[in-house]
Amino acid sequence: GAGVSQTPSNKVTEKGKYVELRCDPISGHTALYWYRQSLGQGPEFLIYFQGTGAADDSGLPNDRFFAVRPEGSVSTLKIQRTERGDSAVYLCASSLFRRGSGANVLTFGAGSRLTVL
Amino acid sequence: QQQVKQSPQSLIVQKGGISIINCAYENTAFDYFPWYQQFPGKGPALLIAIRPDVSEKKEGRFTISFNKSAKQFSLHIMDSQPGDSATYFCAARPPGGSQGNLIFGKGTKLSVKP
Question: Contact, B91 vs B78, CB < 8 A?
Answer without folding.
Answer: no
